[in-house]
Amino acid sequence: MRRVIWSVLTGLGVFFIVLALMLRFFVPGQSVKFPLNEYSKITLEGTGLSYFSAAQVQEFSGVTMAATNTTAGNVAAADAAGSSRIAVWRSFTAIEDLTHHAPFQYSTEQLAFDRKTGVLINCCGTFVGSDHPHVSGQGYVWPFGTQKRTYQVFDTTLLKPVPYAYAGTATVDGITTYVFVAHIPSQQIGTQTLPASLVGLPGAEVTLPEFYSATKTDWVDPVTGTPIKFDLKQRYTLQDSSGATRLVLFDGDLTSTPASVAASAASDNSNANQIRFVEIWGPLGAGILGLILLVAGLVLAARRPEGQYEEYEAGEPVGSAS
Q: How far apart are CA 124 and CA 313, in angstroms?
């Protein structure tokens, strides 16, 4: 019975030690990934904003606005990609003038990305509005184990990546985050044709270049690669040939609401705890249990039961007759 017990203990000890090694060095690479069936909703708000309402053909200023973004995983598109490393998410953003209770703008996009790095992949019906651009850089998320360096992040207005520079750390709802900032200088992104009288120019219609500039800030949990908070300062204008602003299409600062930050932090804490279990607590617990069982089995094997010593006369073979 004693031999059976120490054999079982030793075997279990070896098993849990091997399990600890697998949890530490193999399982994280297979299980720590961004989900296929993502669902999240965040709201950004700002006060003192200005914009031009095409519906009412009127400029508004000093208004309060909200941008609500809903993101959901497109599991069918990801399955059609034929690779477990690809996720496809689709998002819909609605911007509303809360002061006048009027819609301002709607937009939608679908992006595919690597489930470990968050880097965008050109596949799976990628689109931004009516465009089907070539994508690159980070998209919805940052990589697991985000570093203190500059990352290229895809800008859905410019349809190209822009640099987000590391700008320090900050605690957001109890989470230590890395702060990344992108400064986008004013640049032309297209043209718009509108009544000349609307912008104080002669003639019936006029086509003016549209310019865009922005400062964007993301607060990112470096463990999970999840943005916890956003701040978007954006300006869209129409300018004439001299560079003078003829019409402000949008100008203002939108930042994550406290409720959105709290929801993002709660979801992120859950994900971070799962990652810590897989990478730290699981391997540590299995390793300690394995060592205890292994040592117990070896100690038990080394001990002889009392009173079970066989004595034989020198030179007398076992079992010989006297």
A: 85
Helix, strand, coil shares of the chain, percent, nearest 5, are: 25, 45, 30
Contact indicator for 195, 203 with CB cutoff of 8 Å: no
**Closest CA relative to residue 142, chosen from 89, 195, 221:** 221
Two structure tokens written together for 261: 């930050």
> For residues 238 and 206, what is the distance between their CA atoms, to the nearest angstrom?
11
Q: Which residue has the tokens 């849990």?
A: 16
Q: How many residues does the chain have?
A: 322
- Each residue of 217-254: pLDDT tens digit? 999 999 999 999 999 999 999 999 889 999 999 999 99
Place of tokens 């069936």: 37
Dihedral sign computed on CA atoms, order 164, 168, 169, 173? negative
Closest alpha carbon to 283 in 39, 7, 31, 35: 31
Helices and strands (H, E) in the chain, number of each type: 5, 12
d(CA 63, CA 101): 10
pLDDT tens readout for residues 101-149: 999 999 999 999 999 999 999 999 999 999 999 999 999 999 999 999 9
Is the separation of the CB atoms in 111 and 125 below 8 Å?
no
Nearest Cα to Cα of residue 147 among 118, 110, 188: 118
The residue type of 242 is S
> Which tokens is 189 given?
């992104």
